[in-house]
């Protein structure tokens, strides 16, 4: 394995990469083509195909990290990757998005610690639960939705090419309100959302907008894609905060739109942000798609 084996991901690579994701279903949002392409300005992504395995790498803040190979488990290739990362990665050498590598590490590299990244774990919810919000545990959320419905009239519309320019404007308005220039992650997220909109048809995105009447202004937007046959991943969800409760509304409306198509909704990670974690836990996730990693200096 050599550095020259890796090449930058472009839109033209979508069929090849998604073929690997189809043959070897993935569950974490980092292994979704939209994520790989649209966050490229923040986390430069490259890939290599070796022995019918897809190997991804990310360069973030000057630090390179490789992902464990996607494909049928190949111990020899994995060992080759470990040796490669000793020379070509930053502090975090390899991330594991599948737990099949953990027994191997325990058996053949017992002195190499494997860490779990709690803040990068994706939250999974049953689509039916988020669409219906039934039962006592969702009582407060239903109250906020009812208060919103009492105060506002609105429409729920699918995103179309005609509405995309207006969504760009709404995202810029949201960004200004949140002062994202002093928050690099939020700023990069808005940039990724703009990138997805600019390649809407090519990426095969779907989404919806909530328009607040009578002015018909966009109050919230949600953009999603397919994670696997059972799961949709919500890539972006933004709402104008002056409309209190609008995040609860678009969350439910998104689930209603996905009901009958997907059993699960992946709402991505909380990035160790306390407020975001509380918001995601409030919807009672049923499981998580975890990420583990090893450090370059600890590979033995």
UniProtKB/TrEMBL annotation:
<protein>
    <recommendedName>
        <fullName>Phosphatidylglycerol lysyltransferase C-terminal domain-containing protein</fullName>
    </recommendedName>
</protein>
<dbReference type="Pfam" id="PF09924">
    <property type="entry name" value="LPG_synthase_C"/>
</dbReference>
<dbReference type="InterPro" id="IPR016181">
    <property type="entry name" value="Acyl_CoA_acyltransferase"/>
</dbReference>
<dbReference type="InterPro" id="IPR016732">
    <property type="entry name" value="UCP018688"/>
</dbReference>
<dbReference type="InterPro" id="IPR024320">
    <property type="entry name" value="LPG_synthase_C"/>
</dbReference>
<feature type="domain" description="Phosphatidylglycerol lysyltransferase C-terminal">
    <location>
        <begin position="22"/>
        <end position="293"/>
    </location>
</feature>
